[in-house]
Write a structure and sequence with these properties.
Length: 494
């Protein structure tokens, strides 16, 4: 995943004095609130009929939605939507000049009233993913939604529930699921060729620099409908230099790199494990370290998901391999990818489309490669009306997104601790202690003094995977959802 471009592809308590061995699973369901509106029905799609699609949010990743779907046979772009007129208007004009009858919308609600749309794709900021998807499902559309499919755990589960209730097709934008190479590699490992799986490790060593620091509220560009852009999130003053993209690094709209690049690797690591529930225990250690800026999400974090069969360990590093360096750290030759350690070797997944197996000495013994269009798979399921045909059904997207969210929740409820205190707390867990030790060496190489700017030791959180609520921690449960800003409210079950 280090060098693989996604466009190319389309083609409890603080863990302070106690050791980590405290880890020995959620409470009541969400309460009644807004009942989902009755869905309208889009026209049936015949086996030979064009699938008419709309793209919401295309200042970045959405451009790949336009090209990736548009190049497939039997599709027709009919609408574009973006809250930024500088993005929207030129794109609509370009398509119309090519003879395409494309409508432009600033408000997604107006777009969803269009009965000539069969499929809607979302590449908006994270805080819009769940609500936009649910509204589209209620309007009778099928949906392709980018990762993470939610901004929090509760709304992600609601997307799954609404998709099932309304019998709609929803694909998560985790393209690695359409890799035959990765699928074959995982199957080969599970067949026991290199023994029992010991741990799955997700790696997101991706350079993320400072976003700078401002003295006060910044002007919102006049071309942007800021009310619509904020949507479900608070309509707070803009307190960073850039509105676009840097929303990833603040909690009201983003989930840090754990929920940005990292969700891809989290998804595959869970795939390697074969887990179809959230982990029963989670803890995180990290911080926003190496610079002071307007970001609030960690640029360095270790997340430990304590699954019973084997743990899922996730590492995010936004700083380079050392101060003044351009290169990033690697583990078993991987910067961004997954390593499944087994008794007799490791399954290494270094890209969106390949996997290789090495023995205990690091000698390659098997290699797998190959991928197909994630969009084509989505459209095949739209035609068949079978969610089981999807490579990344919305349930898969929800579970992997939620693992990022619960890791972040542990971090957000944590407390800054000295290296000695953190070391004492995790000494009972060999894997976690080793991972944190390497993290500390990485930070030292970047001139980060953890005695002066300590890392945060997250709260050990126990979860009931069946209800997806935490056990005995109301404060953590609050972070499973958010206060939605009317009228941009994710509808709750009646």
């Amino acid at each position: 995943m280090t060098k693989f471009n996604r466009r190319d592809f389309l083609k409890s308590s603080l863990l302070t004095a106690a050791s980590f061995s405290l880890f020995p699973a959620l409470g009541a369901e969400e309460g009644a609130a807004n009942k989902a509106a009755a869905p309208t029905t889009a026209r049936p799609i015949g086996a030979n009929g064009d699938i008419r699609f709309a793209v919401v949010g295309f200042g970045g990743r959405g451009t790949s939605h336009i090209s990736g779907l548009g190049e497939l046979k039997g599709t027709r772009l009919v609408a574009l939507c973006d809250a930024d007129s500088r993005v929207l208007n030129p794109a609509v004009k370009k398509h119309r000049e090519k003879g395409e009858q494309v409508e432009g919308y600033t408000d997604v609600r107006k777009l969803l009233e269009n009965k000539d749309i069969d499929v809607v794709t979302f590449a908006t900021p994270n805080h819009w993913h769940a609500l936009g998807t649910i509204w589209a499902l209620q309007a009778g559309k099928d949906v392709y939604v980018e990762k993470p499919i939610s901004h929090n755990v509760w709304e992600g589960r609601r997307v799954v529930e609404v998709a099932r209730e309304l019998n709609r097709i929803v694909q998560a934008g985790t393209q690695s699921r359409s890799s035959s190479g990765i699928r074959e590699g995982i199957a080969w490992m599970r067949a026991g060729h290199i023994g029992k799986l010991i741990r799955a490790r997700g790696l997101c060593y991706k350079r993320r620099g400072s976003i700078g620091k401002v003295d006060g509220p910044q002007p919102v560009p006049p071309e942007i409908d800021y009310d619509l852009w904020c949507g479900p999130a608070p309509k707070d003053p803009l307190m960073r230099k850039r509105l676009h993209y840097d929303w990833h690094w603040v909690w009201p709209t983003g989930n840090g790199d754990l929920g940005n690049q990292g969700i891809h690797e989290m998804d595959v690591a869970r795939w390697v494990l074969g887990e179809m529930e959230l982990s029963p225990r989670v803890v995180s250690v990290g911080g926003r370290l190496g610079y002071v800026d307007d970001g609030t999400t960690p640029n360095t974090i270790v997340v430990f998901h304590d699954y019973a069969a084997a743990p899922l360990i996730f590492e995010v590093r936004g700083l380079p391999s050392g101060a003044g360096m351009q290169s990033m750290d690697k583990r078993q030759g991987v910067e961004i990818g997954i390593v499944g350690d087994c008794e007799g070797g490791s399954l290494i997944i270094p890209s969106y489309s390949s996997a290789r197996v090495v023995d205990k000495q690091g000698v390659e013994i098997k290699k797998f490669s190959g991928s197909s269009s994630h969009f084509a798979n989505f459209l095949a399921a739209v035609r068949s009306r079978k969610p089981s045909d999807l490579h990344a059904d919305i349930l898969e997207g929800h579970l992997s997104s939620a693992l990022c969210h619960t890791g972040n929740i542990s971090y957000r409820l944590g407390k800054a601790q000295s290296p000695e205190e953190i070391g004492e707390a995790v000494k009972g867990n060999k894997d976690l202690a080793e991972t944190i030790g390497r993290m500390e060496e990485h930070l030292k190489a970047n001139n980060v003094d953890l005695k002066t700017t300590p890392a945060t030791l997250g709260t050990v959180l126990k979860m009931d995977p069946k209800t997806e609520r935490f056990i005995g921690n109301p404060e953590a449960d609050k972070l499973l959802t958010r206060e939605y800003r009317a009228p941009f409210v994710v509808p709750a079950k009646a």
